[in-house]
Design the sequence.
């Protein structure tokens, strides 16, 4: 907690790391290991429960366009870190009015992570025999995927985000910042690609 909280991409990094470990080692038994919540051993649960809660965190933290909310200094979505800039609003990319999560600012990057690692989570669930959870996860991933296509693509560009005012960041409509070199678009390639 010394470095803070409110990072909305962090739960997805847990799924990413576990999926990569399992692919590399083939060791699914790690998912049964007891892991503390909040560094409190009395709250320990199997790692698989941590993955479930990580997945569900994103599902329950969506904004007005049904895209994942931006948190505090999310990786490569640190659009909120200059929120106290003296520059005019038109010349800065502000997503939150303070250093915590807001109810409006949404991240296409976190959506891409959710699509990719949500599929990994579903595959892990299926491999462990939890078909119900796998189907649920796939449905939630599809909803976010569709939200990106509906609200995250402007016909020429994948947006980077929606800011705290609900304005697009990184759209063809923006005078600056139309191209952000991020891996996000790869998550939204046609399913046949």
Sequence:
């Amino acid at each position: 907690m010394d470095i803070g909280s409110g990072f909305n991409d962090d739960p997805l990094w847990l799924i990413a790391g576990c999926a990569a470990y399992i692919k590399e080692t083939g060791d699914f038994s790690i998912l049964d290991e007891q892991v503390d919540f909040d560094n409190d051993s009395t709250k320990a649960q199997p790692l698989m429960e941590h993955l479930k809660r990580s997945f569900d965190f994103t599902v329950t933290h969506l904004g007005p366009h049904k895209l994942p909310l931006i948190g505090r200094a999310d990786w490569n979505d640190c659009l909120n870190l200059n929120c106290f800039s003296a520059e005019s609003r038109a010349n800065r990319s502000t997503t939150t009015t303070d250093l915590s999560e807001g109810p409006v600012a949404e991240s296409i990057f976190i959506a891409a992570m959710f699509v990719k690692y949500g599929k990994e989570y579903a595959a892990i669930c299926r491999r462990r025999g939890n078909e119900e959870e796998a189907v649920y996860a796939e449905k939630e991933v599809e909803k976010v995927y569709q939200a990106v296509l509906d609200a995250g693509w402007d016909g020429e560009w994948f947006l980077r985000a929606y800011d705290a005012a609900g304005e697009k960041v990184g759209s063809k409509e923006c005078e600056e910042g139309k191209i952000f070199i991020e891996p996000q678009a790869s998550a939204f390639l046609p399913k046949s690609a």
About this structure: The helical segments are 10-25, 47-59, 108-127, 131-152. The mean pLDDT is 81. The longest strand covers residues 40-46.
